[in-house]
Amino acid sequence: MKMTKSIVASFVALTMGISGAFAQEFSFSNEVSSDLVTITKADDTEKDFAGISEKAEFEFKSEKVDAGVMVEFTIDDYGADEGYGFKWTDYNYYIEFRPIHEITLAWHDDIYTTASYLPVWDDNVSTGNFGSDGFTVVTRPYPGLRISATIPFQFENDGPNTINFLNGDSDSGEDDFDFGFGFDYTLGNLFSVGFTMIDAVDSDERSYGVFASIMPKNNEDFIISAGFSGSESSVDVEELDFTDELSISATKLYQVACVYNYDALSFAAEIVGSIDKEENFYDLYTGVKAGYAIDDALSVSLTGKLFFDLGNEDGIDEAETVMGFCPEVEYVYGAHTFSFGVAFQVCDGDTFVKFPVSWKYDL
């Protein structure tokens, strides 16, 4: 959904208007990042400026209202005809209002069930979302239990979310009424389970997810999670690799993840795989990340990723295995965080290299 000046102005007015009514806290972060240069070596060697991204986030939290806004733009070479320029790459916002403790009213808010998170990819699978870019109501009838219902503001084709049940005609471009629901339940530091249903009425687009996680040590230092997602169209876990191009797409998809922290050591691993034999490039992805905190300011990490094609029932040739890894150093100085890494990725003799760097300021 396009963010306009009026949306930003309304958001600022809202936060300023409620700031005097409740105890509140504000947070702000600004991150400048770049991959510096990407080097692709195949038949020939190609070097390309990777662009510079600027991302700013502002968040307000209080007893009754939470709200946030994020904007990001990139400076890059957009082709010989366009040259270097500025381009919006992302913009988002959300508002949550709790008239009473047991009910949350949310606008444009992604609300994920806990166990849908993938720690190496650092994001949630889309089917774990029981919020939407529209209006969501979340109830908490029992401690640890959330039950939600959501109505997106519009379809992907930019048309209105028309209230017509089971009357949609895909040939005419008309869709069934789009709404979703879900729940999750978390029992302290022991376990969490969740279920989501997205686009529940539309038999051509309906998706669902079932997720669960356990904490064997009764804390977040050791978490094991698993999930299963299904869709009448496709479940996509996108931009998993270091080139931000490879995805796992399937009508039936599973995931398993683990996080373990011990003193200065940290470890995370995850698997995402396709159960059905679709005409995908890759059916299985694995990611591993290990880190070590040298002291309170300096830490190092190593991330590795593998992609496999397990074949296709239609006899399509298997894609070559992709392997990548990225060592990274992070340094924290007060409110400033600096990071630098080198990402390598190889496939059938072709090599891809980039140099991710970033500076982040947290207020």
Q: Quick gist of this model?
A:
The protein has 363 residues and is mostly beta strands. The protein is built from 1 helix and 24 strands. Helix content is 4%, strand content 57%.
Description:
The chain is mainly beta. It is built from one helix and 24 strands. Strand 8 and strand 9 form a beta hairpin. The two termini are 27 Å apart.
For the largest beta-sheet, the strand count, sense and barrel status come to: 18 strands, antiparallel, barrel
How helix-rich are the residues, as a percent range? under 10%
The beta-strand count equals 24
pLDDT under 50 segments (min length 5)? 1-5
Number of helices, where a helix is a run of at least 4 consecutive DSSP H or I residues: 1
From the alpha carbons, calculate the radius of gyration and give it in angstroms. 22 Å
Structural class: mainly beta
Portion in strands: over 45%
- What gap, in angstroms, lies between the N and C termini? 27 Å
Q: Tell me the series of helices and strands, N- to C-terminal.
A: HEEEEEEEEEEEEEEEEEEEEEEEE
pLDDT average, as an integer? 85
Shape: globular
Features:
two-stranded antiparallel sheet; 57% strand; mainly beta; globular; 1 helix; disordered N terminus; 18-stranded antiparallel barrel; 363 residues
Topology:
Blueprint: H1 5-19, E1 24-34, E2 37-41, E3 45-49, E4 52-62, E5 65-77, E6 84-100, E7 103-109, E8 117-118, E9 123-124, E10 132-139, E11 145-151, E12 180-187, E13 191-198, E14 207-214, E15 222-237, E16 248-262, E17 265-274, E18 284-293, E19 298-308, E20 322-333, E21 336-341, E22 343-347, E23 350-354, E24 357-362
Antiparallel strand pairs: 1-4, 1-24, 2-3, 2-23, 4-5, 5-6, 6-7, 7-10, 8-9, 10-11, 11-12, 12-13, 13-14, 14-15, 15-16, 16-17, 17-18, 18-19, 19-20, 20-21, 20-22, 21-24, 22-23
